[in-house]
Amino acid sequence: MGIYTRTGDEGQTSVIGGRVIKDDDRVEAYGTIDELNCFVGQAISFIDQANGKFEDLREHLLEIQQELFDCGSDLAFVKISETKYKVRDEMVTRLEQWIDLYDAENPKVERFILPGGSLLSSTLHVCRTVCRRAERRAVTLGQHTDINPSVRRYLNRLSDYFFVVARTANARQQVADIEYVRSKKVFRRKDKE
């Protein structure tokens, strides 16, 4: 099998159920998810160099990579029956459980923080921002065509997950988060409300 087909040379690409121009909203959405998946893979590479401190996170990120392919697949269909969707709201609920689990390890934060600290944390912050862009692309696509709404919810929660685990990466490596010094106090723990 050859890697090149020459079918995209005129600026179109195949999606499941048809062909579209390469900058179609559908391609932008699943292409951004693919970009995110690459950064998740990079984060896993940094975990592999961290001497066993992040095996739980590694397992979760590997599962997330599979689910990101599911997200892209659900968005690549021109027409699909809801029974064929791969992304389900149970996946969103599981992300919420993981968020709560990791957030319990993190030091209290009251102000916005700047991306940074450890190399792993910085990469997870890149994942967070690319995930937000993927979510925006999915919202744009959903404004003019039917999409799996669970994909949008999954991406929204996934960006929260990346924020929390970026902080956990710093905490486990005993690297302080960098607070945005001009920020007002904006975060409050649920148990204090």
Automatic annotation (TrEMBL):
Identification of the protein by name: Corrinoid adenosyltransferase
Keyword tags: ATP-binding, Cobalamin biosynthesis, Nucleotide-binding, Transferase
GO MF annotation list: corrinoid adenosyltransferase activity
Organism of this sequence: Paenibacillus taichungensis
Pathway(s) the chain acts in: Cofactor biosynthesis; adenosylcobalamin biosynthesis; adenosylcobalamin from cob(II)yrinate a,c-diamide: step 2/7
EC number: 2.5.1.17
Enzyme kind, highest EC tier: transferase
Ranges that cross the membrane: none
Keyword Nucleotide-binding attached: yes
Lineage: Bacteria, Bacillati, Bacillota, Bacilli, Bacillales
Superkingdom classification of source: Bacteria
Catalytic activity: 2 cob(II)yrinate a,c diamide + reduced [electron-transfer flavoprotein] + 2 ATP = 2 adenosylcob(III)yrinate a,c-diamide + 2 triphosphate + oxidized [electron-transfer flavoprotein] + 3 H(+); 2 cob(II)alamin + reduced [electron-transfer flavoprotein] + 2 ATP = 2 adenosylcob(III)alamin + 2 triphosphate + oxidized [electron-transfer flavoprotein] + 3 H(+)
Cobalamin adenosyltransferase-like domain sequence ranges: 3-169
Family, similarity comment: Belongs to the Cob(I)alamin adenosyltransferase family.
